[in-house]
Specification:
596 residues, alpha/beta, ABC transporter transmembrane region fold, six-stranded mixed β-sheet, four-stranded antiparallel β-sheet, elongated, ABC transporter-related protein, transmembrane helix, ATP-binding
Length: 596
């Protein structure tokens, strides 16, 4: 589904928030009731003037209370009741709108994050992390701010216009038009303001994404920045993007700041007109003095709140610009989806077939060309080849991070497109060269994906990965915080925790993608010993540059430019005297012959 840029963002938001519709109506009712009682004090003041001026001929006298003292006491009690109800409705509306804002914000953020997790890797490669963070945080927060304050302001403004306008028409139909005259100009001005301010706020939101992207990248790469003494260079880049953000905001401020003064002058004309016209009617005896007082106060109540309309619309447009971005994200449809078939881990033997696979990344040349290979269940195969030959792509296709343009991949005879993604990925343990550890404890990182695993199981997995000995030497052993991305640990320690994580998962298929490429010889030997144990009885795919780590594989596939050019055991490939044999001689120092 493509993003809907034609429907008004408020309509899109209401469609999305259908689960909150009842609460929205209740909050709206509280806002209306609060405003109705808020409009009562000017009426009460008019009644007080009527009592003092007309006394025995006042409105209360006609209701059967000729005594002025009694009239004033009744008016005082009525005032307390009105103010009491106004306070009650104000408490309820704030409670309702603010909780509603928090709940919608919470639900929208969870929905957006949940949806992001369903999108394929290609989606993330085309977008910056900072940009998506801006949507999940800043944009959703903008919407929360509007629901917290702005929604109530708009509803109460509309209530004021309808109520006071109706009162004017009832009391003084001859001069009511004077008070209402500014309204069309205010509405027209508001429409033009929204139309011109909306693209400016959209540009601001986009610039926030760009700025967040730079900040996120720089914080992640702070070690590189420091090592290349590029602090001033990065500071200038952030300064430049922040300056663009500042300019875009100033562009919007120039318009929004002019709105209120212009509207105020239009409102002043209406207020002055009703003040003079109704005053002449009261002086000539055509209008009750109390009614004149009500009109003057009500005119102020009707027109002066309109000066806040610019601020409210400003908040509204910021929220709608953010709403567009959040809902566009929610409408981005994943291209890789669940298949209909369920397959439990216990049912999987581990036989994998790549049948005539062709694949290329978007806007790149072909990566795999008619690749076919079969991996028997329980055996270990190795993939080697130059950078860019397609080794890691094979793993990404197996995990369905991407879909091949041609061919099929079978797991125990089942096309992996027909399997539930959860079942497929649950059956595969990935130990990658680029180990990712989460900010948390060693225990939590080993148990990641096997949530709720007992400490005994975690320790057993760590021992299998030869990680237990260094873990117990950490300050808090298994409860030691590893830091963001595991930065408090060495590369070899992170790698062994990653292997322990895969051991605990106990998958029927294990993928080792350059699992020992970034460690020293001693650590490599330890990792190799653990891998020899944990690969027994599992289908294992090993990607390696160090051929010493794969010489015992059941079968080795040599890739070149997306094609399998050699296949066989270590001894058979050496006898073949091709690319593999040449690389072996280069790595062992037996013969130097060109580059692989």
């Amino acid at each position: 589904m493509t993003p809907d840029h034609t429907t008004a963002p408020l309509v899109r938001l209401l469609r999305y928030g259908h689960l909150f519709r009842g609460r929205i109506w209740l909050a709206t009712l509280y806002s209306i009731l609060n405003k109705l009682f808020d409009l009562a004090p000017p009426v009460l003041i008019g009644m007080a003037v009527d009592i003092v001026v007309n006394q025995q001929t006042s409105i209360f006298a006609h209701l059967g209370f000729p005594d002025v003292s009694a009239q004033l006491w009744i008016l005082a009690i009525l005032t307390l009741i009105v103010w009491g109800f106004e306070s009650i409705w104000e408490y309820l509306l704030k409670l309702c709108w603010r909780n509603l804002a928090q709940d919608i914000q919470h639900t929208l953020r969870l929905d957006a994050y949940s949806h992001i997790q369903k999108l394929e890797l290609a989606y993330f490669e085309e977008r910056s992390t900072g940009g998506m963070m801006a949507i999940l945080n800043d944009d959703i927060n903008q919407l929360e701010r509007f629901l917290d304050v702005g929604a109530n302001d708009l509803i109460q403004l509309l209530t004021t216009v309808i109520t006071v306008g109706g009162m004017f028409i009832y009391l003084t139909p001859g001069v009511a038009w004077m008070a209402l005259l500014p309204m069309p100009f205010v509405v027209a001005g508001s429409y033009l303001f929204q139309k011109r301010i909306a693209p400016r706020y959209m540009a601001i939101r986009e610039q926030v994404s760009i700025l967040n992207s730079y900040l996120s990248n720089n914080l992640s790469g702070i070690a590189t920045i420091k090592s290349y003494t590029a602090e001033q260079h990065e500071l200038r880049r952030i300064e430049r993007e922040s300056h663009v953000y500042q300019e875009k905001n100033q562009h919007a401020i120039a318009l929004s700041a002019a709105f209120v003064p212009i509207i105020r002058m239009v409102i002043a004309l209406g207020f002055s007109a009703i003040l003079v016209a109704a005053g002449l009617m009261a002086a000539g005896g055509d209008l009750n003095v109390g009614a004149y007082s009500i009109l003057v106060f009500m005119t102020q109540r009707l027109l002066w709140p309109l000066t806040r309309l610019g601020e409210t619309l400003d908040l509204f447009q910021r929220a709608m610009a953010s709403t567009h971005r959040v809902l566009d994200l929610l409408q981005a449809q994943p291209t890789i989806t669940d298949g209909p078939q369920t397959l439990t881990t216990a049912q999987i033997g581990g036989k994998i077939v790549f049948d005539d696979i062709s694949f290329h990344y978007e806007r790149r040349i072909s990566t795999l060309n008619h690749l076919s290979l079969t991996i028997p269940a329980g055996e270990t195969i190795a993939l080697i080849g130059a950078t860019g030959s397609g080794k890691s792509t094979i793993v990404k296709l197996l995990l369905r991070f991407y879909e091949p343009q041609q061919g099929r991949i079978l797991l125990d005879g089942h096309n992996i497109r027909d399997l539930r993604l959860h079942d497929l990925r649950k059956s595969i343990g990935l130990v990658s060269q680029d180990v990712y550890l989460f900010h948390g404890t060693v225990y939590e990182n080993i148990a990641y994906g096997s949530f709720g695993a007992s400490m005994e199981d975690v320790i057993a997995a760590a021992k299998a990965a030869e990680a237990h000995d260094f873990i117990i030497e950490l300050p808090d052993d298994y409860q030691t915080i590893v830091g963001e991305r595991g930065q408090k640990l060495s590369g070899g320690q992170r790698q062994r925790i990653s292997i322990a994580r895969a051991v605990l998962k106990d998958p029927p298929v294990l993928v080792l993608d350059e699992a020992t490429s970034a460690v020293d010889n001693e650590t490599e030997a330890a990792i190799q010993r653990s891998l020899e144990r944990i690969t027994i009885g599992r289908t294992t795919i090993v990607i390696a540059h160090r051929l010493s780590t794969i010489r015992n594989a059941h079968c080795i596939y040599v890739l070149d430019k997306g094609e399998v050019v050699e296949t066989g055991t270590h001894e058979a490939l050496l006898t073949h005297n091709g690319l593999y044999a040449n690389l072996w001689r280069v790595q062992t120092g037996e013969k130097i012959k060109g580059n692989f």
